[in-house]
Amino acid sequence: MTAARQLHLFKSRRQRGQAPPPPSEFASQAFLVSVVRRWLDPHWRFCHVANGEARSPSAARRCRRLGVVAGWPDLQFAGPDKQMAFLEMKRRGGRLSDAQAAMRDHLEGCGFAYLCTDDVNQAIAWLKQHGILRGGFTVQ
Q1: Is residue 44 included in any domain, yes or no?
Q2: Which domain holds residue 62?
Q3: C-alpha triplet 119, 51, 104: angle, nearest 5°
Q4: Is the pLDDT of residue 133 over 80?
């Protein structure tokens, strides 16, 4: 029989040797959206289409009837000269569903910029690279 490990009441998980859990997809995306709202180039617009929320069966049927389609990326960006870019945020280690992978292939096949990542810093660098975010800032 193994002895149960005594937890220290005044030490954090890190001090007890346990890594904190990775941020949720919601937390990562909410942080990214706060950065985008502050640093978005004025020639670009963006939105999040809430496809993944929990719904009652009747609400899900209404959404499907109104055109909600599985697989659309979390964030969509429209810019000057008919530019479009799509960003899918995942929880650390998360992977695309089959519908999301099919949508990625379609959007990239159409010539649109697309990124799927679980790293907010990578997302910010990608948005800067495409001119969607203004430069001159770093995330700490």
Answers
A1: yes
A2: 25-129
A3: 55
A4: yes
